[in-house]
């Protein structure tokens, strides 16, 4: 079964995105999951078995092929791998990959983000900005920090700022807490 | 005592005050703030106690130094007197076990209807945990 967790506080946007979906969709406005599982971008998919063991750690997987050209990740490959696991207990080779732990800075960035989001919700906008900035300084290439803060700060997560972040991320060798994927570079 | 907001899974206004840069909270409020109680055996929750070797270290005036408590529980904290808050993270051992021992940490979050749901609500099943967003 699928359990979707929105690293997000926009219930309306997530409700719209979840239309027609029958599996559970949970809201994680305080980014608890990204701290517990060391997740640095979405979408990230973790496979968990009947005994609560992580069978395959976080990997970028998509529900559509919209981004296949950019990411080199195919929806069908993942779906086939999932079927092989569910029916025949076969797991892909990359599942043995060990995800690196968050650094102290990345942990602290999550706390600054959580504080900033609280301050934003309670109308303390200036202090919120300060802590969003501190979070971004500590984890400048973590999408769950930098990009997730954009809509909360009234900025466009699909705009110029995102493309600048994405370029910096590619130039840094695509640092990602999860199974590394083939990046198609230009 | 005035109020300090403790932010972990949610934000909890808690009886407490600042002594220097130290956030000292009312011992009676500790349970509401982070779900642990200070007892003679140590810091306790659901029958499990973590011994507190140096009780003086977590005491500050009439209150308890919440950042020291977090440290004993292996949880990171961000103490911010300017915003009158202490933000407390998840125990780092939960994450390192997830990564090295592959034990999937349980968590509890609200679904779109506001109902609390946990990973363990669907125990005994194969699960695909999908982190996604609108951003």
Could you give a short account of the major beta sheet of chain B? 7 strands, mixed
Task: State the share of residues found in helices of chain A, binned by percent.
Answer: 40-55%
Question: Which regions of chain A have little confidence, pLDDT < 50, spanning 5+ residues?
Answer: none
Strand order of the largest sheet of chain A: 1-2
Number of strands of chain A: 4
Keywords:
heterodimer; A: 186 residues; mainly alpha; 4 strands; 10% strand; globular; B: 135 residues; alpha+beta
What does this structure look like?
The complex is a heterodimer of chains A (186) and B (135). With 186 residues, chain A is mainly alpha-helical. The mean pLDDT of chain A is 93. In chain A, helix 5 (104-121) runs antiparallel to helix 6 (125-138). In chain A, strands 1-2 form a two-stranded parallel ribbon. The radius of gyration of chain A is 17 Å and the shape is globular. Chain A contains eight helices and four strands, in the order E-H-E-H-E-E-H-H-H-H-H-H. Chain B has 135 residues and is an alpha+beta fold. Chain B has a domain at 2-88. Helices cover 19% and strands 41% of the residues of chain B. Chain B is built from four helices and 13 strands. Chain B is globular. At the A-B interface, strand 1, helix 1, strand 2, helix 2 and strand 3 of A face strand 9, strand 10, helix 4, strand 11 and strand 13 of B. Strand 2 of chain A pairs antiparallel with strand 11 of chain B, so a sheet runs across the interface.
């Amino acid at each position: 079964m699928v359990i979707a967790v929105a690293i997000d506080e926009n219930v309306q946007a997530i409700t719209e995105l979840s239309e027609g979906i029958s599996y559970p969709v949970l809201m994680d406005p305080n980014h608890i999951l990204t701290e517990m599982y060391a997740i640095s971008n979405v979408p990230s998919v973790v496979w968990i078995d009947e005994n609560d063991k992580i069978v395959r750690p976080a990997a970028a997987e998509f529900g559509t092929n919209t981004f296949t050209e950019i990411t080199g990740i195919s929806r069908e490959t993942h779906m086939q791998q999932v079927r092989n696991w569910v029916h025949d207990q076969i797991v892909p080779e990359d599942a043995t990959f060990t995800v690196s732990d968050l650094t102290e800075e990345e942990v602290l960035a999550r706390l600054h983000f959580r504080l900033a989001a609280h301050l934003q919700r309670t109308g303390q906008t200036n202090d919120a900005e300060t802590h969003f900035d501190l979070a971004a300084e500590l984890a400048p290439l973590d999408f769950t920090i930098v990009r997730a803060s954009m809509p909360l700060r009234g900025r466009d997560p699909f705009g110029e700022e995102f493309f600048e972040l994405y370029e910096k991320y590619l130039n840094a060798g695509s640092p990602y807490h999860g199974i590394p994927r083939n990046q198609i570079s230009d | 005592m005035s109020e300090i907001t403790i932010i972990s899974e949610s934000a909890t206004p808690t009886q407490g005050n600042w002594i220097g840069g130290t956030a000292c909270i009312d011992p009676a409020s500790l349970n509401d703030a982070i779900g642990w109680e200070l007892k003679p055996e140590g810091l306790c929750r659901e029958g499990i106690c973590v011994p507190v070797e140096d009780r003086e270290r977590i005491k500050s005036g009439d209150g308890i130094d919440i950042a020291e408590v977090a440290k004993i529980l292996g949880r990171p904290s961000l103490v911010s007197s300017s915003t009158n808050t202490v933000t407390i993270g998840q125990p780092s051992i939960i994450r390192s076990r997830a990564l090295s021992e592959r034990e999937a940490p349980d968590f509890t979050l609200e679904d779109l209807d506001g109902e609390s749901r946990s990973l363990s609500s669907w125990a005994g099943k194969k699960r695909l945990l999908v982190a996604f967003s609108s951003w």
